[in-house]
Design brief:
- The protein is mainly alpha-helical.
- Helices cover about 75% and strands about 0% of the residues.
- The chain has 5 helices and no strands.
- The protein is elongated.
- The chain binds MU-OXO-diiron.
- MU-OXO-diiron binds near residues 19, 49 and 129.
- The site of MU-OXO-diiron has 7 residues, from helix 1, helix 2 and helix 3.
């Protein structure tokens, strides 16, 4: 595997692992705050990010590269509110989208069309994840500080299908 591609995919492995840890910290905070629907949603989202990481690890190794299993910085532990959590989540996903775009750009520069093809799954996934986070934030803005609205929001979030069809088999 081309070293430049291997390096940027390893950077992406760390980004997906970092996402998984951040969402796990958010899930734990929500669970301790008694916001159980949101906690379940975030636990599931954390698992999903781990499958993204594994998909990359397997791809790098199968293509003759060496996947780096990274150490992860301690994630933020305290959050102010649900709006704070989902604002951070959206910002984080936008950063990940920019990283994925950079991987795709380097694949084209290096004429690595099979990695480019592999990365298209991540391009589509980022669109979905950003749209979901924006949708959740719009709902939270509408609800404001209405306690009954927040109760229903939390209940509904538990039933949102967070794992999409076509999720990676790892
Ligand atoms: Fe795997 Fe949410 O990016």
């Amino acid at each position: 595997m081309n070293t430049r591609i291997e390096n940027i995919l390893n950077k992406q492995i760390k980004a997906e692992a970092t996402s998984s840890q951040l969402y796990l910290a958010m899930a734990s905070w929500a669970e301790n705050a008694g916001i159980n629907g949101t906690a379940n949603f975030l636990y599931q989202h954390s698992d999903e990010e781990r499958t993204h990481m594994l998909k990359l690890v397997r791809f790098v190794n199968e293509r003759g590269g060496k996947a780096d299993i990274p150490s992860i910085d301690i994630p933020q532990k305290e959050f102010e509110s649900l709006t704070h959590i989902f604002t951070l989540l959206l910002e984080h996903e936008i950063m990940v989208t920019n990283m994925i775009n950079e991987v795709v750009y380097i694949c084209l520069e290096e004429k690595d069309y099979s990695t480019h093809n592999f990365m298209q799954w991540f391009v589509a996934e980022q669109l979905e994840e950003e749209a979901l986070a924006r949708n959740i934030l719009d709902k939270l803005k509408m609800i404001g500080n209405d306690k009954a609205g927040l109760y229903l929001f939390d209940r509904d979030l538990e039933t949102i299908q967070n794992v999409k069809p076509g999720a990676p088999n790892v």
